[in-house]
């Protein structure tokens, strides 16, 4: 098994020029061409929480389909967290993960079959508060460790963690390997590694990085990150 994954905080489709252009997000995703994508801020925050990438963009010609974790009819995700998987991949199960928080934050999980292997995927957008981020990390780790049977796992998302080793990253690093993707925020001049991809010990990160295209630098305030991952067995 070898797959390409990506994580992207799409800022509700609003770019660094303050224009809402979801078509630019789709263009960036096409440039990356990942098999599995975790999106953050994929729904509008108010009203019916409408999906930023609506059905007109995710049309029959689009290579991905949305994992159905939404709790509202117009949404694509849970508290803005959405997962896209390449068409042809088998979705076995999916669910939102309820996180301890005072903000509208959450995580989503999916179990995907790729050939003869099953893969557990978690997408997340963690709190601005360091203490709550650590509690949220504990909740996500407990969710993964409580799965029966256990499967190789990939965690992706905007952790909002500025420290390279402390806080919630310290909690995740006890259980997962963290891809050295590089800084992804702010898109115009990236200095912070807020976005992360992490894998269980039975997976190997073959390559990883930040996607720095001209479109990505204007489509959102975050740059997308990616990794190529394979099994160790």
Structural notes for this entry:
- The protein is α+β, with helices and mostly antiparallel strands and 233 residues long.
- The chain has one domain: 4-Layer Sandwich (Deoxyribonuclease I, Chain A).
- It has helices at 22-32, 130-145, 167-173, 216-219; strands at 2-9, 36-40, 64-66, 82-86, 90-97, 106-114, 117-125, 153-158, 176-178, 195-200, 203-210, 225-231.
- Strands 3-4-2-1-12-11 form a six-stranded mixed β-sheet, with no helix packed on it. A six-stranded mixed β-sheet has the order 5-6-7-8-10-9, covered by helices on one side.
- A hairpin with a 2-residue loop joins strand 6 and strand 7.
- The protein is globular.
- The chain starts with a strand and ends with a strand.
Low-confidence stretches: none
Molecular shape: globular
Q: In which order are the strands of the major sheet placed?
A: 3-4-2-1-12-11
Estimate the strand proportion: 25-35%
Question: pLDDT average, as an integer?
Answer: 94
Could you state the order of secondary-structure elements as H and E? EHEEEEEEHEHEEEHE
Count of domain modules = 1
Helix/strand structural class: alpha+beta
Quickly give the CATH architecture: 4-Layer Sandwich
Radius of gyration, in angstroms, nearest whole number = 16 Å
Per CATH, the superfamily is: Endonuclease/exonuclease/phosphatase
Q: Compute the separation of the termini in Å.
A: 9 Å
Give the strand tally. 12
Major pleated sheet: 6 strands, mixed
Helix content: 10-25%
CATH class categorisation: Alpha Beta
Helical stretch tally: 4
In CATH terms, what is the fold-level topology?
Answer: Deoxyribonuclease I, Chain A
């Amino acid at each position: 098994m070898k797959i390409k994954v990506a994580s992207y905080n799409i800022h509700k489709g609003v770019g660094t020029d303050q224009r809402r252009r979801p078509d630019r997000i789709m263009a960036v995703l096409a440039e990356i061409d990942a098999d599995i994508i975790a999106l953050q801020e994929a729904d509008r925050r108010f009203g019916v929480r409408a999906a930023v990438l609506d059905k007109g963009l995710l049309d029959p010609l689009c290579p991905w389909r949305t994992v159905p974790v939404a709790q509202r009819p117009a949404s694509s995700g849970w508290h803005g967290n959405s997962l896209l998987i390449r068409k042809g991949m088998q979705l076995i199960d999916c669910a939102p993960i309820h996180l301890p928080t005072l903000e509208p934050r959450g995580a989503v999980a999916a179990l995907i079959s790729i050939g003869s292997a099953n893969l557990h995927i978690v997408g997340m957008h963690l709190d601005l508060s360091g203490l709550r981020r650590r509690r949220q990390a504990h909740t996500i780790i407990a969710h993964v460790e409580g799965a029966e049977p256990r499967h190789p796992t990939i965690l992706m998302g905007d952790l909002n963690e500025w420290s390279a080793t402390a806080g919630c990253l310290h909690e995740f690093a006890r259980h997962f390997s963290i891809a050295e993707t590089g800084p992804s925020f702010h898109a115009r001049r990236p200095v912070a590694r807020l976005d992360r991809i992490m894998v269980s010990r039975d997976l190997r990160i073959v390559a990883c990085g930040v996607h720095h295209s001209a479109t990505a630098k204007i489509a959102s305030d975050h740059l997308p990150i990616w990794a190529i991952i394979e099994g160790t067995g």
